[in-house]
């Protein structure tokens, strides 16, 4: 009788009426059928529980996780220390934290956050490391180490991210280039925070030059404010087309879209489709969000991201994409069963597609999957509990070990 590495027995797959067995060998799904004869070196009996592709998180500020209390301390000191003259704006507190950036503590925090991701079956992360005159390459170096440590369990794509701009922050061009030389996976950008549209265009151009030189994908935070005159998403998509970077340019946030006039929005959607630009939305981390429903209806790939975990911008987060789905159901008001299923897509295969990672329960696909504790999608989203079993690259993830790394609950 044929032997596989793993056989999952009696799985409830999405959209199927019958229960199925799933055989996995050499990291790949090799068979799916109601009753497989093959034996598994590891047999997992799931008794009708929901088994799906694993989760992915295309947007996480991994160098900032668990800096909330640091930011609060600094903000408090400012508040008292400057005669109450300083605003406690999140962005200012966050930038003060960066003055204390050191690879060591960032590494500790990031390891815990990635272990939490593994526990929640969130196996692909696009992780931003701030690269600027304050952070230097401290965060980047830490994230490269975390990427190497978790390779094969959680695949981390490290983004070199010029959070404070490129033109307005002297020295950033050189640091960004050095970040790519050191092995960053993705070129990041944030053109809308430059002082002028011309500077934003130059920012975008610089990033695509770098992507071209190192043959890497591009990820940019775009138009992240309630200002309908912001246009960097469109500039980004047009540049992607011009450079031949179709399906390699990922747009994040794009909150200004919610205030665009409808005719412009529809023209923009056409440009996004031509560029193969996917949009990551994190509706729980700001009062506005991209037009998720309209983008989906018109055939743009959309997905959800965690964005932040306990930092100056957002006080919660566990790298649990089911929790993000639960929040998005409320914030996007997508509550029907069909809409909840659709939101689940946004945290699984659509998020994978945005990062150029294949997530699919199909014969021949890489075996990245989760066994949820529940038998029904609604229940799974309702409780947004961690999966009972996680498989990455065809191997069972040691959840007890991940729990140990994640450690005690942090603030
Ligand atoms: Zn963000």
What's the structural blueprint in terms of helices and strands?
Blueprint: E1 3-11, E2 20-25, E3 28-33, E4 39-45, E5 51-53, E6 55-60, H1 68-81, H2 90-98, H3 103-119, E7 122-130, H4 138-150, E8 155-161, H5 172-182, E9 186-189, H6 197-214, E10 217-222, H7 232-243, E11 249-253, H8 262-275, E12 278-281, H9 292-297, E13 302-304, H10 321-331, H11 337-347, H12 349-354, E14 369-371, H13 377-383, E15 389-392, E16 395-396, H14 399-406
Parallel strand pairs: 1-4, 6-7, 7-8, 8-9, 9-10, 10-11, 11-12, 12-13
Antiparallel strand pairs: 1-2, 2-3, 5-14, 14-15, 15-16
Helix pairs in contact: 1-2, 3-4, 3-14, 6-7, 7-8, 10-11, 10-13
The structure holds zinc ion.
Provide an overview of this structure.
It contains 14 helices and 16 strands. The chain is of the alpha/beta class and 411 residues long. The chain folds into two domains: 3-53 and 361-398, Urease, subunit C, domain 1, CATH 2.30.40.10; 56-354, Metal-dependent hydrolases (TIM Barrel, Alpha-Beta Barrel). The protein has an eight-stranded parallel beta sheet. α1 (68-81) packs across α2, α3 (103-119) runs antiparallel to α14 (399-406) and α10 (321-331) packs across α13 (377-383). It starts with a strand and ends in a 5-residue tail after the last helix. The model is unreliable at 82-88 (pLDDT under 50). The structure holds zinc ion (ZN). Residues 59, 61, 221, 307 line the site of zinc ion.
Provide a short characterization of the protein structure.
The protein has helices at 68-81, 90-98, 103-119, 138-150, 172-182, 197-214, 232-243, 262-275, 292-297, 321-331, 337-347, 349-354, 377-383, 399-406; strands spanning 3-11, 20-25, 28-33, 39-45, 51-53, 55-60, 122-130, 155-161, 186-189, 217-222, 249-253, 278-281, 302-304, 369-371, 389-392, 395-396. It is an alpha/beta fold and 411 residues long. It is built from 14 helices and 16 strands.
